[in-house]
Amino acid sequence: MRLLSCVVLLLTCPCVHAADTARAKLDAFAKGISAISADFEQQVHDPNGGGKDSRGTLALKAPRQFRWQVTKPHEQLIVADGEKVWIYDPDLEQVTVRAQGSEEAHSPLTVLTDLSQLDRDFTATEHGERDGLSWLRLKSKDKEPQFEHADLGFDASGLARMAFKDTLGNETEIRFARWQRNPKLATDAFKFTPPKGVDVVGDPTPAAEVHPVKD
C-alpha cells in the first residue's frame, strides 16, 4: 500500500516531485550566482582509520577564483587566482605555488558559480534522501579524476554538506553554514603575495602574455 501510494503521488504531482530533486535544489541554489562565500567544518578520514578535523571560511568567484582559509586547528590559506594556486602554511613559514590546472577546474564546488560545468564535466545522478538531505552524486568525466565521486547534500536552504572519496581512499565530509550569495568580497580576496621571510616553493612568476606577431 505504501508503494502504491508513492506511485500515485508521482503520477499525480510530477511538478512537486521535480522541484524536490537534488538537481532541482542545486539549480535553484546556484541560479544567478557569480560569487559565493560560507563557513565550513571539514572531517577527513584516511583508509588506516586516522582522521583530521578543520574549520574555516571559503569564497568562490566565477570563473576560476577560489579562497579556502583554515582557521582551526592550524592556520592555512589556499588561494587560486585564475593562473596560480598558492598554499600558505604560517606555522611552517612556507608558501607552495603551482600553475592552476584541471584539478581545480574539476572541483565539485566550482559548479556553484558555473552551472554549465555540471553537465559538461560531470555525470550527475540522484542519490536519494539521507540524514534529512537530498543527495546528488557527481562523477568526473576527466580521464584522470581526482576523486571517485562527490555527493552534494541539499536542504531547504541550499547546499548543506559535501562528501567525497578520493582515489587514495581518503573520505572527506564538509558541512557548510552561513552561505552568502554574491557577497561584497574584498578586492584582494583572490590575490596572494608571499609574506617577507617565508620560503617559496615553486615558480611565482606570472604567466607570460602572448601577443601575435604583426606584419
Structure keywords:
215 residues, 45% strand, alpha+beta, disordered C terminus, disordered N terminus, twelve-stranded mixed sheet, outer membrane lipoprotein receptor (LolB), chain A, 17% helix
What is the compact description of this entry?
The protein is an alpha+beta fold. The chain is 17% helix and 45% strand.
Can you give a write-up of this model?
By secondary structure, this protein is an alpha+beta fold. It has one domain: outer membrane lipoprotein receptor (LolB), chain A. Helices cover 17% and strands 45% of the residues. The protein has a twelve-stranded mixed β-sheet. Strand 9 and strand 10 form a beta hairpin. The relative contact order is 0.19.
- pLDDT below 50 for ≥5 consecutive residues: which ranges? 1-17, 208-215
Strand content: 35-45%
Strand order of the largest sheet: 7-8-9-10-11-1-2-3-4-5-6-12
What is the number of helical segments per DSSP (H or I, 4+ residues)?
5
Rg, Å, rounded = 20 Å
CATH architecture classification: Clam
**Total separate domains:** 1
Question: Could you tell me how far the N terminus lies from the C terminus, measured between alpha carbons in angstroms?
Answer: 79 Å
SSE order and pairing:
Layout: H1 2-12, H2 14-19, H3 22-30, E1 35-45, E2 51-61, E3 65-72, E4 76-80, E5 84-89, E6 94-99, H4 102-105, H5 116-121, E7 122-130, E8 133-140, E9 147-155, E10 158-166, E11 171-181, E12 199-201
Parallel strand pairs: 6-12
Antiparallel strand pairs: 1-2, 1-11, 2-3, 3-4, 4-5, 5-6, 7-8, 8-9, 9-10, 10-11
